[in-house]
Structure formats: C-alpha cells, structure tokens
Design brief:
Bound molecules: pyridoxal-5'-phosphate
Helix content: 25-40%
Order of helices and strands: HHHEHHEHEHEHEHEHEEHHHHHEEHEEEH
Shape: globular
Strand content: 5-15%
CATH class of the largest domain: Alpha Beta
Oligomer: single chain
Distance between the termini: 61 Å
Number of strands: 13
CATH topology of the largest domain: Aspartate Aminotransferase, domain 2
Radius of gyration: 22 Å
Number of helices: 17
CATH superfamily of the largest domain: Type I PLP-dependent aspartate aminotransferase-like (Major domain)
Structural class: alpha/beta
C-alpha cells in the first residue's frame, strides 16, 4: 500500500519537502477549529480538577492506571480525529513533522540533557521496554541484573532477551518489608548483584507492587564509579521503567542519571491513551526491532542500503498510528508544565502523606509504602487484615472510593493520590477504609 502524504508527514518523511512547499489546500471542513479552552487556572487545584471529565460522585484513586485526559488534551484529540475523519490525508498545518513537535515537547518536559533526537515515541511503557530489551546488543558473556520488584513488562522483556541471546538474567531483592526500605540497602543490593560484565541494570522508578520509590540517582552514581574501570562496550547501562514517577515526580533525566527511561504518557502525565516515550543517551547500544518510518529508513530502503547507526527515531516503530492521540501529547506536557512540575510533585506527595498518616492509625491496616517522601511518590499500598484486596476494592467502590489491586503475587490494596484527588477525598478514603474493619 503506498504511503500517503499524511502518514509520511506524521513521521517526518516528507517534513523537509513540506517545509519548502505550500501546504496543500485543505477542504474547508478539514481545517480544524482552534480548540475552545475552558477557563483554566493552573494555580487553583479545583480548576485543575475541573479540566477532567471524571464522575464527581467518586473519589478517584486509580486514575493513574489508564489516565483520564484533561480538557485541552481531549479537545486536541477531538480536533485531530475530526480532521482525519473528514480527510484521511489531513496533515496539521505548518509543514513541520508533528512527531518532531511531540519529541520537542517531551524533551522540554524531560529537562536538562534531554534532546528531541534522544526520544523514541512508543504506545506505552511496555512497548518502550519491549523495544529496549529486544534490541539491546548483548555480547557473549555479558549479563543482566534486575530486581524482584519490577512489573511484568521488565521481567518478561528480560526473559525473552535471555531466551533469544542465552544471556543470564539475575534478580536481587532490594528490601524485605517495603515500609522499611532504605536507600543504602537498595543501592548496595544492586552493587553486590553486579557481575564484572553486567551490561544492563533494569530497575523501576516507583514500584507498582509496594509504592517504594527507588533511588535511581544514587544507583546511577554508584554505577558511574563501577563503569570508570570498564571498557565502553561493557559499561553497565541503567535502564528504568519510569511510569509511576514520570508525570508525578518533578525530576528529569539529568536528575535521574540513567541511560534509558521508558514511560507511558497515559498514566501520571494524564496524556492521551496509547502513547509513551523512551528517552535514551546511548542509542547505538540498541538495535531497532520494528521498521521505522523515519526519513533515514525510507532513504536507505529506496537506495537499497541500511539507515546506519541506531537512533531514537530508528527505534521508534513505524506504521500508521492513532495520530490524533500522538499529536495531542504536547498538550499533556503543556498542561503539567503550566501547573508546575514541582507543584504537582508536592501535591501528589502531600496527599499521599495525608492518606498514609490516616491509614496508619487504623489497627486493621498494614501500610506497605514507606513513610519517607524520598522513598515514595503517589502510590500508597496496604493490606487489610482478614480481607482480600479485591474484596476491599469492591467494598470501597460501594462507598464511592475507587482503588485498585496490585497485579503481583502478593496483591495489595493500592491508592494513587494525584492532581485529580482532593484532601477531602483522601479523608473520605480513610473513613471508608476504617469501615472495612
Ligand atoms: C511498573 C509498571 N510498568 C509498566 C506498566 C504498564 O504501563 P503501560 O500501560 O504504559 O505499558 C505498569 C502498569 O500498568 C506498571 O505498574
């Protein structure tokens, strides 16, 4: 099937042409209207919350699972969807690759050291990690270190890597009781798990099993010391599933100090469903897995060659996408930036602290998530004595409190405090949990 102009522009292939060619006349009905924004005061939490179409009858503590999008994101999706429905050849005006605009917005959000060219566009965290662990070039004798606490996306991605390459994957335990987790113990567990040729260290920024926030920066600093004595190709690469930190915590890639960060943008960032990013700083360590629709890939294909060294763009899977979602990603970055990354983190953690301190008082509740702000984010996990988490979730739902169950071997009851929850709703949740006794 020949590629149409819109798909190629979307992925950058025709962007250079379009930049010097007037955009084709759009049919009048294809020209999207500028979205009408509702009044939005990013300084006012009620106004922030009013941007969401959440059912006001419920206190929503599971928004992070598959996030609802705020009004500007929804309106932009609608605008692009209508334009694409009216004209499948529709391309946003301006002649610039919309994917490039997404990368630029993501790079600004990721902060210092993030360049648009370092960012692959994905559909989810799982896709990002899948591309990373399918593509990472493991040499004979090199191995992988991960932990016992990561999600399926990391463990399965690494299992498949081991199956394909024969490379060994080892797991270390970072803590026994999560509530008593400590930075020193987590860093030293990784340190002692390293082999002389460990190439990949795969960790998760915030554990969705317990709410523990892993000291990624301290691990990166430790690895920097270890790597000083290593050959470039044996350098241990710190690869992070960032999804429960990205959007909730203010830190950017320079603060984390990792080599790769994969995250969906449809959780704590409240971006369009089915979108994600992967930032990396050593793309030549990763082979592309799915053919990209980049200019380099098309040029190489048409001339019968190879596009050459790996780049984030070459690792970005090609193919037609739900472009109305992808092209609305900059609105999600802009929304969170308007509120302020530091304010979002503070709000998320203040509400989590309020929830933890209320739950701690309840004799039938055992908190799993650490009290320390440094070792936690917006996830709060606990168990209820004598009750399965699923039953707790169902009973809380009847009290108009939405929580979730962690999808792990030892499931816990889980809450996520965020920009869509209020202090009053936190108190409502504590009262509802008190009623579970
Ligand atoms: C730690 C962690 N990583 C990844 C995922 C999956 O994220 P995505 O939907 O972006 O693939 C989840 C849960 O959905 C998770 O808890």
């Amino acid at each position: 099937m020949p590629l149409n102009r819109r798909a190629l522009l979307g992925t950058g292939v025709l962007a250079g042409v379009a930049a010097c060619t007037p955009a084709p006349a759009q049919k009048t009905q294809n020209t999207p209207n500028v979205p009408q924004r509702r009044a939005f005061d990013p300084q006012d939490w009620a106004s922030v919350r009013a941007q969401f179409a959440l059912d006001p009858a419920y206190a929503q503590f599971a928004a992070f699972v598959l996030a609802p999008a705020p009004a500007p994101v929804r309106e932009t999706i609608r605008t692009y969807r209508d334009a694409l429905d009216a004209d499948p050849e529709y391309t946003p005006a301006g002649g610039r690759s919309p994917d490039q605009a997404v990368r630029e917005a993501a790079a600004r959000y990721l902060g210092a050291r993030a360049e648009p060219g370092d960012i692959a566009l994905t559909d989810s965290t799982t896709m990002g990690l899948g591309l990373l662990y399918s593509g990472i070039r493991l040499r004979p004798g090199q191995d992988v270190l991960t932990t016992e606490h990561d999600f399926l996306a990391t463990h399965e991605g690494l299992r498949l890597l081991a199956e394909r390459t024969g490379g060994k994957v080892r797991r270390v335990r970072l803590y026994d009781g999560p509530a008593a987790a400590s930075e020193d113990r987590m860093v030293s567990a990784i340190r002692s798990g390293l082999g002389p040729r460990t190439r990949v260290v795969a960790v998760t920024w915030v554990h969705s099993s317990t709410g523990v926030r892993v000291p990624v920066r301290a691990i990166a600093d430790m690895l920097a010391e270890v790597n000083k004595g290593r050959d470039e190709h044996d350098r241990a690469l710190l690869c992070v599933d960032g999804v429960h930190g990205f959007g909730a915590m203010a830190g950017g890639v320079a603060d984390l100090g990792c080599d790769f960060l994969a995250s969906g943008t449809h959780k704590w960032l409240f971006g369009p469903r089915g979108t994600g990013i992967m930032w990396g700083r050593v793309w030549d360590a990763v082979a592309p897995i799915i053919p990209s629709f980049s200019q380099a890939a098309f040029d190489a294909w048409q001339s019968g060659g190879s596009p050459g060294a790996s780049t984030a763009e070459l690792v970005t899977p090609g193919g037609y996408k739900a472009f109305e979602h992808r092209w609305a990603m900059p609105e999600a970055f802009a929304f969170m930036t308007a509120i302020g990354k530091d304010r979002v983190q503070r709000r998320t953690q203040e509400l989590a602290a309020r929830l933890k301190s209320g739950l701690r008082e309840l004799p039938h509740v055992t908190l799993a998530t650490p009290e320390s702000q440094e070792l936690s984010a917006g996830l709060v996990c606990c168990s209820i004595s004598g009750m399965q988490p699923l039953e707790a979730v169902n009973r809380l739902h009847a009290q108009k409190v939405v929580a979730s169950v962690t999808p792990y071997n030892e499931p816990l009851l889980r809450f996520g405090t965020s920009i869509v929850t209020t202090p009053e709703q936190v108190d409502q949740a504590i009262k509802a949990v008190e009623g579970l006794r």
